[in-house]
Amino acid sequence: MEIFHGVLYGFQVALQPINLLYCFIGVFIGTLVGVLPGLGPAAAIALLLPSTFAASPVSAIIMLAGIYYGAMYGGSTTSILVNIPGEAAAVVTCLDGHAMARQGRAGAALGIAAFGSFIAGTLSVVALTFLAPFLARVTLRFGPPEYFALMVLGLTLLTYFARESTVKALMMAAVGLLCGTVGQDTISGRFRFTFGIRTLEDGLGLVPVIMGLFGISEVLLNLEQRQQQKEIFAPPTKGLLPTREDWRLSTTPILRGSVLGFLLGILPGAGAIIASFASYAVEKRASRHPERFGAGAIEGVAGPEAANNAAAGGAFIPLLTLGIPANAVMAILLGALMIHGLQPGPLLVTQAPDVFWGIITSMYIGNAMLLVLNLPLIPLWARLLRVPYATMYPLILLFCLIGAYSVGNNIGDGIVMWVFGIVGYLLKKFDYEGAPLILAMVIGPMMEEALRQSLILSTGSFGIFVSRPISGGFLLISALLLLLPMLRRSPGTG
Amino acid sequence: MPRDLVSGLFWLAVAIFAAVQGLSLKLGSLNRPGAGFFPFWGGVVLGLLSIVLVVSSRGRGAAGSSRSRPESSKPLVVVGALLGYLLLLETLGFVAVTFLFLLLLFRLERLTWAFSAVSAGVGALASYGLFQLWLKTQLPTGPFGF
Question: ipTM of this predicted complex?
């Protein structure tokens, strides 16, 4: 009943004309960002964050959230028509989606991607609606040791899902934790790693760091690769509705992808990218004709596209119930909530029910908007893809510059972005991933506070982390996750 | 030199720096950890991981999965342009410095002078309109008042 009231209240908030407008702007920009390769949702949300300062917190978060799940829709369009993923989570969609386009079935691929995204997005919001308030009540009892252990588990999971080496992912997490300590220490008031630079006294800004790591560095890497004009398939004007046969093949993959995506979305570090790959692997294995995969199997589009949308919904769970971000985008949303004076976590549902329920219900509306918006606008997106990169990237860089500057109206943040742009470029050259760094940087200060408070509580004994069952459990799982890969690799166990 | 060795040594240096800074910030006691506690242990963990990486890279020799070397100097020019933009922004003002920035990058892409100049002008004015006039971002004004 409580949830029913919450949802009803949420719709009252989300259906206000101003919030509908923000939701629409969010999903529209999200789709655009998803379509354009080389500009991901993390950089886009960071970019637009300053422009929401004037709006109410609910409207701001509704728009920023819309950018995130909107990008999941848009990414598939580029994958299918151009064979370049518009967004990292749409990489697998290239395989069968583009193959379908080559066979003249681009319409069906785009159609099933949109419908699959809609179904999965909606299912995951339903799950979010029921799970989030329940979890918020459970986590209300968490003390500093539980929070610390949970964040350790989060960082471990993050490195567990790393695509490159685990050691490097752990190193990035450690670097992120150190980056998180920059600025004034909240407990002692001392300045750390500021080197007398005024901008650093408040800590490294999340927005400039993300724009550097995910925006600037991406452009630099793209510039290096030889530009080749890719073949862009003419967007189909009809035949976007999948046939009965398409639906028969796709229904189960969409449902499986939804569940898989939602669950992986909740886990820190896993997120939409891993979810889409996992779904593809599952569908290929479950198929009676796995040889069709890669040659235009519609299941290979339906499953992963469902999974990455469901993951976007699942990712909101740790943010709304624990105040812990599951990925880089959620980290900026966390920052956005805090800038608007809200403390994400178990208390959000009671202290700011309009925000809590408003965001959740706006996602039902946003998903419906995306379905209506997406199919008719495909020709427009296809034309946008013909704009050469040479004219596109100077504008992306300009937006990053303006975005970094306007966070605090100072050049210092721009310099931070510049430095992290170079760092991000070098990290990719040396096969490191940026995501663990960002997440650890955001979690770092919370983790440090929880650790120090726990130690004060226990008068200096680390026993507090293992004697309390919940935190002990989290740490045990973390230890197992770290040790398992090593055991598997050791000789004799095969 | 193997690439993992290079990057591992770099992070080892960062780790040592962090740990030393942590020490000088005071570790405090376990029941009252100080400002340097977290940076110190963070540095120690990073250092240990870097050593693992360095040691494991030696076995593999120089054959790392080397990604493409820079094929052009474009990234360097862009990095320089970005820094120049930031340094000149408050003296020249938003519109002027944006025009120069876009002009440079369009020329870098070998677009014609005329096309570059017109596009850069349109880009600078349009972004001024979008951010300053519409979104009310406070952009720096130059000696010309915009």
Answer: 0.89
